[in-house]
């Protein structure tokens, strides 16, 4: 089995993926970056409708993650663990520690950008789990934008090679969850995490690294930066649609365009 060193954030979704992989017995070390508070405060100066939408959005996210990732507020302590801050993530101690593990594969999820020096200190093969379908949704808040664009079936995850360019590495696999009536934005986001964890477990137990076929991202897509998202965007999800965009999609009330997904288990992609 492939020996993996994990680098993840500290939110429940990150720990869920980590614990799923650790349970396989393939993880030889886990670097945990302490991330920001999960429940942000609304910015000053918002109109009342936007303040309420902001509070609803992040309260719903917190509730959804506690439901879907119950029991994953802690990491499995059966593997060596190094806890770091954003400032020390790419530090010498982290590089030395990763190098000492002699892993076959580095997998990152929910950490800040990794330096080229750190990547050089780790195994030759390095993957990132991106919360969004690349290349169409790269960067930040990329599980939100498909809903804003009224394309909930474009909400998913991408496993790709780590490169110096954000979310631009060659793709290993796309993961998308099944949409069901009653799913809100955060339900789909959580189900996407569960799906990518299941797919990743299957990948590392099915393939040798030499068997992995990578696919280049054929278009630049869209790189969303933090400043692209504003609380006012929430009006579309919560006031115009009351968070029932999935129901509208399943009822055929929204266009059903499909992304061209890369599936490592589909032999036609070999």
Note the topology:
Elements: E1 4-8, H1 12-22, E2 27-33, H2 48-68, E3 81-84, H3 92-101, E4 105-109, H4 116-121, E5 125-130, E6 138-139, H5 145-148, E7 157-161, E8 171-175, H6 185-206, E9 223-224, H7 234-240, H8 245-250
Parallel strand pairs: 1-2, 1-4, 2-3, 4-5, 6-9
Antiparallel strand pairs: 5-7, 7-8
Helix pairs in contact: 1-6, 2-6, 2-7
Kindly provide the radius of gyration, computed on alpha-carbon positions and rounded to a whole number of angstroms.
19 Å
Category by helix and strand content: alpha/beta
**Topology-level CATH name:** Rossmann fold
Q: Could you tell me the strand content as a percent range?
A: 15-25%
Sequence of strands across the biggest β-sheet: 3-2-1-4-5-7-8
Low-pLDDT residue intervals, each spanning 5 or more residues: none
User: What is the CATH class name?
Assistant: Alpha Beta
The CATH architecture: 3-Layer(aba) Sandwich
Give the total of domains. 1
Share of residues in helices? 25-40%
Total beta-strand segments: 9
Q: Helical region count? A: 8
Write up what this structure looks like.
With 270 residues, the chain is α/β, with parallel strands linked by helices. It has a single domain, classed as Rossmann fold (3-Layer(aba) Sandwich), CATH 3.40.50. Helices cover 32% and strands 15% of the residues. The chain contains eight helices and nine strands. The strands form two sheets. Strands 3-2-1-4-5-7-8 form a seven-stranded mixed sheet, with helices on both faces. A two-stranded parallel sheet has the order 6-9. Helix 2 links the parallel strand 2 (27-33) and strand 3. Helix 2 packs parallel to helix 6. The longest helix is centred in the C-terminal third of the chain and has 22 residues, at 185-206. It is globular. The model has no long low-confidence stretch (mean pLDDT 93).
